[in-house]
Amino acid sequence: MMDLDPNLHPLKLAAIVYRPADDVDGLLATFASDLICQGNRVGGIVQRNTKGAGGTRELMELIDLMTGAAIRICQPLGSGAGACKLDPAGLAEAATAVSRAVAANVDLVIVNKFSKQEAAGGGLRAEIADAVAAGRPLLTAVPDKCYDAWAYFTGSFGTTLLCERRIVEDWWREMSLREKRARVSAHFARTNPSSTADVGGTLPFRTRSLADHHVGRFDHG
After folding, report:
1. Mean pLDDT, the chain, as a whole number?
2. Helical H segments across the chain, by residue range
3. Would you say 137 and 167 are in contact if contact means Cβ atoms under 8 Å apart?
4. Where are the domains of the chain?
5. 162, 16 Cβ separation under 8 angstroms
6. Do the strands 42-51 and 13-18 form a parallel or antiparallel pair, or are they unpaired?
7. b/e map 78-101, b = 16+ CB within 10 Å
8. Coil vs helix vs strand at 62
9. Contact indicator for 184, 192 with CB cutoff of 8 Å
């Protein structure tokens, strides 16, 4: 379980809970690309899936959002195999990409998934925890079968999102606005120590602990 700052707002840790039919990789990749084009500083990794020779098997690679470099994380099991296994060297490179984004103090860190490897205690679990501990807004995706492991890992903290672009955009709009207000408040407090500034705001949707949030729902109201 992560050791969370009691002042951390649940909007800063968001997970898209998805089902097998959802194209969560495409959603994260296009969302990240659009944010970067808008001038936001985004780091971390997204996943790109392509067909191999003959279109018989899907090849998986990660894209470093700060450099654009492709990271191969699959080791083929042979010409007749229908799957691949994770490449430790590729996973280490992906971990470095996430750590680099945290150190660069980007506006948003994206980690493509919290899945089987992370649920079992490996993968990019440590890098996700480090990003949250550093106070960086983080967005990831969690398959519904790993939801319980995610809830345990986060201590039932954070915001869950439907796998829909408009829902993710709503989250980003509110989260980034809150971040801007916090920066203004911090500056105001430094220059006017005897005064306080209101950095709150009315959320256009409801955030709650993961333990109380029904998987797949994201309530507006």
Report:
1. 84
2. 24-37, 88-103, 116-119, 125-133, 147-154, 165-191
3. no
4. 10-45+106-212
5. yes
6. unpaired
7. eeeeeebebbeebbebbbebbbeb
8. strand
9. no
